[in-house]
Input
Amino acid sequence: MKVEPTERLTKDTLNIDAREVEALIQAPPMDIPPYEPAMVKLKDGSTMLIRAAKFEEAPMMLEYVGKVMKVDHDYYDIVGSRIYSEILGWLRKRLKDPYTLVGLIDGLWVGFANGRLYNEDISISLHSMALKRGLRIGAIMYYAKAQYAFDILGQKEWWATYESPNGWMRWGLGMAQPSYPWPEYQHELGGARVFYMKKDYWDRVIRKYLLDLVKADLERPVPDELLKKNDKMRVPEEILV
Output
């Protein structure tokens, strides 16, 4: 859009440093503690490491999730599309205060969870996904990011929404999450209903519910040997969703 200046200008063309524009486009990050790696024993006896994803891992993550976008059952196409945009938004710094977690078994990527801080009090739950079936990995990753939001970041509230009936059945109904009145409150994922839980509900009910579901707790600190085993990530060859 062009609007004529109200005063004569000696220079009517301005050259702007792209770095100055970037300062306006990026959201100034909040000062939040990083995710401390955790480990959990899975029911098949293997140990999964959960840690923050690295920027250099984003291209291989995007390549894998690009294939998930083509899966046409249980809404994986829209889930994959949104996870793809979230990983890209994290990489390009177009998400406000995101946290992106990966679950790894001997370096193999088997779990994903992410969210972001809306403000100092509210955490937005984005997505959780198991890349390997039958080991409760999806539940573990959901627990890991909720624990991070409430126990480490000190958030007071958790906002979620669900793209599939299965997701709502497991988390919305399973955790008896109430919802805010719609459309006054809308989740950023397409304007869907906001299902929420607050810190006291997490402490009194949901932490135990998820631990009973997972049947194991996260353990810290993680031995150096396990960290080294999972320092370099590789993606599965198959799409098992």
Remarks:
- The CA atoms of residues 56 and 91 lie 9 Å apart.
- The longest strand covers residues 108-117.
